[in-house]
Amino acid sequence: MMGRLFSTLPLFSTDYSSAASAVRDSGALAIICCPNGCMGNYVRFDEPRWADMPGNVLQMDMEEIDVIFGSKDWMKELRGLDVSSVEAIAFVHTPVSSLVGFDTDSLCRKVREEFGVRAVSIATNGYGTYHDGMDKAMRALLKAIPEEGGTGGTAILGFTPLEYTEAELAHVKDSCRAEMCFPGDPLGDLSRVRGAERNVLISSSATPFARMMEKRFGIPYELYTEGGQADPIGDADVLIIGEQVRSNLIRNELRRKGRDADVATFFTLDDRFSEKGDLKLRTEEDVSRLGSEGYQYVIGEPLIEPLFPESVRFIRDPQAAISSRLFWKDRIDIRSIGGMLERMQ
After folding, report:
1. Could you read off the pLDDT of 225-240 as tens digits, one per residue?
2. Containing structural domain, residue 133
3. Which residue of 28, 30, 130, 286 shows the fewest CB atoms closer than 10 Å?
């Protein structure tokens, strides 16, 4: 267990933070169930857009004693909100609400009966990563998407501000000629998502959801690949540490320019889109061991740089789920990955 103790890296963005962002991006109201602290952590560190673009996310004024003894009328609290223009309400769980067993399922039923608003419960607990939260949020929000609707079209799955900017999302949608984006489009506009022709993942966090959609509705899925998949060209002298889809985009560009790379990540690693040499990271020791594998360059989160020897050239590509907005200006924009190669000269 001591191997899981991080001494250099901070805690990663939690599951409830990613779920809250997914809810707000779908036009719904996210209500974070916690006594205090969790909402502050979300808006200060885990939602890069909050300062400029706050969204429909509220904190439920929850005390443990109220939950345990049922002394508070939660519907009375909700009646003070104007939910007439809200697509849906999603109750997002945190460590305290999960531990004490706060019953949001019954609240969802009452909300639907009294307000006529769709309501769902997202079983996050604050102990999972933001990828776990994305999966749980998408599964829960699918229940709130109208079932009537046509078929056809491309759906983009897995947008999160922890990995992409709004401008990058627009670029991906145009590149894929996508008709739908989940999260990203209002729930009322996603009635065709169950009948999409294909799902394109821009984050590996959407992989479990895409697999479920393939099994239930027969919708094939693929990772977003700018300009098509590039073939391996030889031994990798570059290591990319980051989210799998972004890392594969960078690797493809490197291959087109005559270099090859391996990919490593602390988050979801889909075997279907992995290659020999790709690695799921679990501890800081896993990262340190990679420093002796002969890589000339490492592309990744700046906070990981001290774990590598000085002989390895480090190229910054920050991940907000690890370092929040500290190094955001240094990140590699997926619209101009080719410019990254200038840093390797």
Report:
1. 987 888 888 889 999 9
2. 7-142
3. 286
